[in-house]
């Protein structure tokens, strides 16, 4: 009798052995969760677009149209010429002529200007008769990078002027520096932001969403029911990540389209290599998400852990905001365990420098090893929890 | 029918480190039987049930479920049992039909069979025309009944119910038990844990766990007679008072 019962049951389960069909059913269910939750879906698809536009246009470290003021005590041909040059430059926006030193301080204090140029008395006379004249550049260094950039720009405008008046006279010794900016001749900030945003978005979308969706099943109790079913735990986990893998591919596509057509950042290297490496990084991020889901008991914990342990490290240690070489040694060592760092190097190499796989195989290997280790730990933990 | 065993447990033990959650329990469950598994919180019910469902490996002892060994034939056991957890176990953001399709699907039912089953189930629960309603919109009692029907959608040999009627009003509980009787008449064995002593009286046989051991196992009628109690409540209180373990 018992045997008959079992036989009749196994007749009803012609696919029970293969499991491929069950796997697809699970993926479909997972997709329905995402589809039903329109708000999250909206965020998933538009967050990368907003981020890329934000970082690309608003959060740029290029300096354009910086407001400056000039205190010209000579008002001669030379100072006028220099003032005109400066005002014509796209970097500066001359908004005020000042009339005293007190004026300078007051204007700075009001926060109206970032830099002031001061020409002393008798500028041209000094230049012609003593061969020396001085210009004072006063910059608001509460933002040190901008202050630095502005004084550099101003100095180079002044140097140009100097050269133009020296043209007729032969100088005894001259060294001319010839500067070439490789890979990014126009020094666009987007060239480093686009790879950075890709790393950030993929990491957050994949890790946070998978960890939340796995923990959610634990919270609502469906995980137990699924674990009692014939589905293998490993397949359950993989099935849960597949829809997010697809969403991530969509995100990679939208980021690349935007960067090429809206930010004018070209893909110099192989698009396919770039896509393949991005898929690899997506899988790494998904494994991070699975690992987080192992430890988190509630959806909030999962979300919080993902944000805290991923957002800042990715931002800080991927190297796209702050150069890792400038960090203290301990932080440099820590940066090595941040997957985004390696992905950032890979994307920059392919997209901006146009390098092939030969240049990034080491970074690729590191990402693959990280993924395998993360998956290994997660699956082991998953099994321990079951026994 | 009565003498065909679908679950056997002999000297089953589960230890977590120093703590013995399930202490040497032995019992048999017969085909089509409604077997009540009682005990205070922390008595070891859930742990014992998890071992039988293949969610947890016993530390010692022998157990077979639907004729399969819990150590070696885990996968075969899983195909032949249904399970309904303490927590409500349907997806609230999916429709009734999608929930049925999902759970029937992961047990490998064919498309036509799923369709057939869906119609049958909707009719049985008087939910015709509601298949596109999100489960979220159903009252708790309906959700619970739906969850039970889905737990046996693949016609398992045994269904394990872990406190299935928690928080449900008495009328719905009665309706829920009507579904259980119906399933048992179809030959599905019911293994149910519960807190409600009136429900214990609905069972064919009841076992009562105290501190990881099974202290009593008989029909509700015999238990009441032996313990000289007028209700299962009385029986349970006499046994549970002996417990050393606290919740």
Explain what this protein looks like in three dimensions.
The complex is a heterodimer of chains A (387) and B (247). Chain A has 387 residues and is mainly alpha-helical. The N terminus of chain A is likely disordered. Chain A has two domains: 237 residues, no CATH class; 98 residues, 3-Layer(aba) Sandwich (abc type-2 transporter like fold), CATH 3.40.1710.10. In chain A, 34% of the residues are buried. Chain B has 247 residues and is α/β, with parallel strands linked by helices. Chain B is globular and about 50 Å long. Chain B starts with a strand and ends in a 7-residue tail after the last helix. The mean pLDDT of chain B is 90. The chains are: A mainly alpha (387), B alpha/beta (247). The interface between A and B is large, with 34 and 47 residues.
Number of domains of chain B: 1
Q: Give the quaternary arrangement of the chains.
A: heterodimer
Number of helices of chain B: 9
Give the structural class of chain B. alpha/beta
Give the proportion of residues in helices of chain B.
25-40%
The radius of gyration computed from the alpha-carbon positions of chain B, rounded to a whole number of angstroms, is 18 Å
- Low-confidence regions of chain A: 1-17
Listing every helix as H and every strand as E from the N terminus to the C terminus, the arrangement of chain B reads EEEHEEHEHHHEHEHEEHH
Strand content of chain B: 25-35%
**Low-pLDDT segments of chain B:** none
Per the CATH scheme, the topology name of chain B is Rossmann fold
Q: Strand percentage of chain A, roughly? A: 5-15%
Overall pLDDT of chain A, averaged?
Answer: 86
CATH class of chain B: Alpha Beta
How many separate structural domains of chain A? 2
Kindly report how far apart the N and C termini of chain B lie: 38 Å
């Amino acid at each position: 009798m018992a045997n008959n019962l079992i036989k009749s049951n196994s007749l009803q389960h012609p696919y029970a052995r293969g499991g491929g069909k069950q796997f697809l059913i699970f993926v479909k269910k997972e997709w329905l969760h995402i589809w039903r939750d329109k708000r999250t879906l909206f965020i998933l698809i538009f967050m990368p677009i907003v981020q890329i536009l934000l970082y690309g246009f608003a959060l740029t470290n290029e300096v354009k149209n910086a407001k400056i003021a000039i205190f010209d005590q000579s008002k001669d041909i030379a100072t006028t010429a220099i003032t005109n040059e400066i005002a014509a430059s796209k970097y500066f926006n001359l908004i005020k002529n000042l009339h005293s030193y007190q004026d300078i301080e007051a204007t700075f204090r009001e926060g109206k200007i970032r830099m002031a140029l001061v020409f002393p008395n008798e500028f041209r006379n000094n230049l012609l008769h003593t061969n020396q004249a001085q210009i004072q550049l006063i910059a608001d260094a509460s933002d040190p990078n901008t202050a630095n950039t502005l004084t550099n720009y101003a100095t180079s405008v002044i140097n140009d002027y100097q050269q133009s008046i020296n043209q007729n006279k032969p100088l005894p010794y001259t060294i001319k520096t010839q500067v070439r900016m490789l890979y990014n001749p126009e020094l666009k900030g987007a060239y480093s932001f686009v790879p950075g945003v890709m790393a950030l978005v993929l990491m957050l979308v994949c890790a946070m969403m998978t960890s939340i969706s796995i923990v959610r099943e634990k919270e609502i109790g469906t995980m137990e029911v699924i674990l009692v079913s014939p589905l293998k735990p490993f397949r359950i986990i993989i099935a849960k990540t597949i829809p997010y893998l697809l969403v991530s591919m969509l995100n990679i596509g939208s980021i690349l389209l935007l960067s090429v057509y809206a930010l004018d950042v070209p893909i110099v290297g192989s698009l396919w290599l770039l896509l393949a490496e991005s898929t690899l990084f997506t899988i790494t991020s998904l494994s991070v998400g699975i690992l987080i889901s192992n430890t988190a008991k509630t959806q909030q914990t999962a979300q919080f852990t993902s944000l805290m342990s991923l957002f800042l490290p990715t931002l800080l240690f991927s190297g796209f905001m702050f150069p890792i070489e400038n960090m203290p040694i301990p932080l440099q060592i820590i940066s090595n365990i941040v997957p985004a760092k390696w992905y950032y190097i890979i994307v920059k190499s392919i997209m901006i420098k146009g390098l092939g796989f030969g240049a990034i195989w080491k970074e690729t290997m590191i990402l693959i090893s990280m993924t395998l280790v993360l998956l290994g730990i997660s699956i082991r933990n998953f099994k321990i929890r079951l026994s | 029918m009565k003498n065909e065993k679908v679950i056997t447990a002999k000297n089953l033990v589960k230890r977590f480190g120093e703590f013995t959650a399930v202490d040497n329990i032995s019992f048999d469950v017969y085909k089509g039987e409604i077997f009540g598994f009682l005990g205070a919180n922390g008595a070891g019910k859930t742990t014992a049930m998890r071992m039988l469902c293949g969610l947890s490996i016993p530390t010692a002892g022998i157990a077979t479920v639907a004729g399969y060994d819990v150590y070696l034939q885990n996968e075969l056991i899983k195909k032949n049992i249904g399970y309904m957890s303490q927590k409500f176990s349907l997806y609230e953001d999916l429709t009734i039909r999608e929930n049925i399709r999902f759970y029937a699907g992961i047990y490998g039912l064919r498309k036509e069979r799923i369709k057939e089953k869906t119609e049958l189930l909707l009719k049985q629960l008087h939910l015709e025309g509601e298949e596109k309603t999100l489960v979220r919109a159903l009252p708790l009692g309906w959700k619970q009944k739906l969850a039970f029907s889905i737990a046996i959608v693949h016609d398992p040999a045994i269904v394990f119910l872990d406190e299935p009627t928690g928080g449900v009003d008495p009328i719905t509980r009665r309706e829920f038990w009507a579904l259980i009787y119906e399933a048992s008449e179809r030959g599905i064995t019911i293994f149910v844990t519960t807190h409600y002593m009136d429900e214990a009286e609905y069972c064919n046989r009841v076992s009562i766990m105290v501190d990881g051991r099974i202290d009593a196992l008989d029909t509700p009628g015999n238990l009441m007679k032996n313990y000289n109690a007028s209700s299962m409540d009385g029986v349970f209180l006499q046994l549970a008072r002996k417990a050393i373990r606290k919740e």
